Amino acid sequence: MQKNKVRKAVIPVAGFGTRLFPATKVVKKELFPIIDRDGRAKPVILAIIEEAINAGITEVGIVVQPDDKEIFEDLLKNPPKKELLEKLSPQNQEYSRYIEDLGSKTTILLQDEQLGYGHAVFCAKDWVQDEPFLLMLGDHIYASDIEKSCASQVLDVYEKVNQSVVGLTKMPADIIHKAGCVTGVWQELNSILSITQLYEKPTIEYAKQHLRVEGMSENKFLGIFGLYLLTPKIFDSLAEHINKNFRERGEFQLTSCLEKLRQQEGMTGYVVKGKCFDTGLPDAYRQTMIDFRNF
């Protein structure tokens, strides 16, 4: 495969946020506030866009429901009204200009029907075109354990291996039924893995039988972290599932298409040196509010 510099990131934000109902009746979950290390209250989506841009991404596509287009445009493309701008501190006036700069690098893409995460990714196909791209969850924010950001780490591994990369994290057995899970063969122990299988939301029994990874304790598995670097071939598998109306749990999923991509091109797993903060569940969001600022 020809090596391409990664320029684009895709962030699907078109879900309904049912697990945060009724707050999500009035505020999209991607617009929930978090407090960053500078003590600034910002919507989750801004933190995710910043993660991408700071890693060297130059164009961000966010996939939204048509009804929400205006809200995201207002955040990213429209400066505050003059009377509000004048009331902001000099630092926040500067930050407002910075948001406009982020907005100039952001394209809003539409998912007309909410048919699942895989379908939302597919809605970015025409915008991504024939390029590798960084895929980020719309309700997760990341904090690195090292100087290099989580997204930068994943991009670096792609530069090395020149195939799709899935960010991974070590997970206890009792939560893997909520996550995508992988197994494979270590290329660098506890860091880089040749993936031999991806599986969405396995039972503990299935995981123990099929998803063990050498050197990891019996109750630990490799779960998907929420950052992916994918080649555009992923769209072929997604298109096939959509054309054949192949749904899992009623929706078009991503993980089974990643497994197909792995079979076709190979795939690398990378254990990200950092933590992923979930903002998509009430208790997880509460914990993120407490932990993220101090991480």
Overview of the molecule:
- This protein has 295 residues and is an alpha/beta fold.
- The protein has one domain: Spore Coat Polysaccharide Biosynthesis Protein SpsA, Chain A (Alpha-Beta Complex), CATH 3.90.550.
- The protein has helices at residues 44-54, 69-77, 82-87, 90-104, 117-122, 125-128, 150-161, 204-210, 234-243, 255-265, 282-291, and strands at residues 8-12, 33-35, 41-43, 59-64, 106-110, 133-136, 140-144, 165-172, 180-188, 192-200, 220-230, 268-271, 274-278.
- Strands 8-11-9-10-12 form a five-stranded mixed β-barrel.
- β2 and β3 form a beta hairpin.
- α9 (234-243) crosses α10.
List keywords for this structure.
295 residues, alpha/beta, Spore Coat Polysaccharide Biosynthesis Protein SpsA, Chain A, five-stranded mixed beta barrel, two-stranded antiparallel sheet, globular
